[in-house]
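hi support,

uploading two proteins for the ticket. first:
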Amino acid sequence: MINAMNQLYPQALNQIEQMKQGNPIHTPEGNTQEFTSILRDSLNTLEGKQADSAHAVQSLIDGSADDLHSVMIKTTEAQLSLEVAVQLRNRALEAYNEIKNMQF
């Protein structure tokens, strides 16, 4: 899990830097993804993590899951994903407001 996260963050930072420079984001296949598809996939991942967390907590309450460690990991993943999504939303709103306030 940690190895996957350590690989994901540099890729995400690289994609953000490419977007800042105006370069399209290339997938390993060489295709260009649109921003909307990236955003849609990210939100679907966030929704999946939230659902997994809720299911893990419910199974712990029911008594069907006896591994508190995995429940806590799923809950923390969901929390971190939500915090990242909120920060991205805040940054997007800040950028929109800056563009809106520009003098032409």
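and the second one:
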Amino acid sequence: MKIYLLRHGQTTYNVEKRYQGTLDIPLSEEGRAQLVRADISPKKVYVSPLIRARSTADILFPEAEQVVIDDFREMCFGIFQGRNYIEMERDPEYIAWVGEYCEGRCPGGERKAEFCDRTCNAFVPLVEEALENGEEMLVMMAHGGNQMAIMERYALPRHDYYHWCGPNAGGYVLEADPDIWHRDHTLQLIEEVQYVRKEEQEAEEGEKGRKEA
């Protein structure tokens, strides 16, 4: 069975590097225009309740039933939500949180460990049910944080949490072998995908290449 872990399309907060968290920020006009219909046609898509994820699923999978999973909402960043790191560079609470490698509790929000448990505890039953029913694919449309939580815990090859934030309207395709999953709860990464217009994807890949050079 293939599992698609996808992130919503672009918002103005993404462009401005703001913490969105549980704020219900819509897709930007540009972000909506970038999207293309996906090359798969699932019957169901398991979605975050936040509008940016649901709107992305509407465009990528227009014929699919959307099943809202409340625990697929993004991590709650508390008082940091709506702000970016430049605006908070002198904020003592933000400095303290970053100094703990962002592992501690965001004031008024969640700890990373709590968020990861919430996400994974919602994800595992969906995998178990899909495998039991002999499904060919399981598709999830949520947020970068959900991707990172699931990939860090279950994906092979192993990488840490921050390695796994996929691009807007993109993410990871995993292979779920029933025997391997039931034995050690691991999933094999087989592909990375992004459902945006070709020129947008090429521009993003070029920018990534310049940063890595």
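thanks. also noticed: DSSP finds eight helices and seven strands in the chain.
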